[in-house]
Amino acid sequence: MAARIVDGKRVAAAMRAEIRERIQGLRRDNRGVPGLAVVRVGDDPASAAYVRSKAKACQEVGIAAREIGFPGFVPHDELVAHLEALNRDAAVHGILVQLPLPPHLDERAVLETVDPVKDVDGFTYANIGRLVENRARFVPCTPAGILELLDREKIEIAGRRAVVVGRSEIVGKPTAMLLLHRHATVTICHSRTADLAAETRRADILIAAAGRPRLITGSMVTPGAAIVDVGITRVGGRLVGDVDFDSVAPVASAVTPVPGGVGPMTVAMLLRNTLRAFEMGLGLGPAERSA
Ligand code: NAD
């Protein structure tokens, strides 16, 4: 059996079209335009590229994106003061702080400055707490994108065994929590897991988010499993996932490619969270909200 290749690019494009249409509708009704502020510190080229692609995606759907760059040596208090001003700015509905921050800044303290109702990355303690209680306001974008892909591909979650490889705060843990809320039986694996292959072989749904190129091979996958490859590592100028695609594809029922799988979904979910923040500001209830 050859796995279905899940086209994240196509799914993300469909989502962006839905978001664009919703924003056009709100504009027609004179409800205003959603605004996203993207805060970047330092001149890391990878961060700069991510921020550019997010700004471009915003522009395409009608979100007003504002990029605010600070030099790498910006003092903590100055950065915090700017974030507080963005919290007060009525034209800004979503605020994103591009990570990682330079080591002299306390990342947690900076993130906690963001007003939780504008925290479209879902990284503040307030939003993490809501997620754990299954009352999420903003779900972190990559985990949200993974669940959206599974849903749109009609991959059953409830009652199935899901294995998440990776326990980071931004991918592994929130993804495991979302799968748990959807009634999967969830195992989280990490760098100290004694026998990774024994765990991954039990998975009906396997999420690979370790950042280790081609860690998951065909012999670690049970026939018919659905595989989501979150990993992105640059190897010799190419982007390589955590899944050894060539050996896994003949065994699995579905697999997401790298690039073109989870990556485009992450950006689409940022747009959706920003739209949600805007709609919450308009006082639209969940029933009237779009996505
Ligand atoms: P991280 O480095 O913070 O966490 C990696 C996790 O993997 C850790 O919990 C670690 O315990 C675990 N791990 C490492 N080696 C392992 C091994 N050999 N066996 C089992 N577990 C192991 O990384 P992260 O921020 O969670 O990102 C993970 C990967 O996903 C990276 O490649 C990153 O670039 C990628 N990523 C992709 C997107 C996207 O949009 N597609 C978004 C975020 C991260």
What does this structure look like?
- The chain is of the alpha/beta class.
- It folds into 2 domains: 33-115, Leucine Dehydrogenase, chain A, domain 1 (Rossmann fold); 141-263, NAD(P)-binding Rossmann-like Domain (Rossmann fold, 3-Layer(aba) Sandwich).
- The chain has 10 helices and 11 strands.
- It has helices at 8-28, 45-61, 76-88, 107-113, 125-132, 141-152, 172-181, 196-200, 245-248, 262-281, and strands at 4-5, 35-41, 64-70, 94-97, 161-165, 185-189, 205-208, 226-229, 233-235, 238-240, 254-255.
- Strands 1-11-8-7-5-6 form a 6-stranded parallel β-sheet.
- Helix 2 crosses helix 10 (262-281) and helix 6 (141-152) packs across helix 10 (262-281).
- The chain is globular.
- 45% of the residues are buried.
What attributes does this structure have?
Rossmann fold; globular; 291 residues; alpha/beta; 2 domains; 11 strands; six-stranded parallel β-sheet; binds nicotinamide-adenine-dinucleotide; single chain; three-stranded parallel β-sheet
Approximate helicity band: 40-55%
Q: Which hetero compounds are present in the coordinates?
A: nicotinamide-adenine-dinucleotide
Taking the sheet with the most strands, its summary is: 6 strands, parallel
Strand content: 15-25%
N- to C-terminal distance: 35 Å
Main CATH class of the largest domain: Alpha Beta
**What spatial order of strands do you see in the largest sheet?**
1-11-8-7-5-6
Kindly name the structural category: alpha/beta
Per DSSP E runs of 2 or more residues, the count of β-strands stands at 11
Using only CA atoms, what is the Rg? 19 Å
H/E element order: EHEHEHEHHHEHEHEEEEHEH
Shape: globular
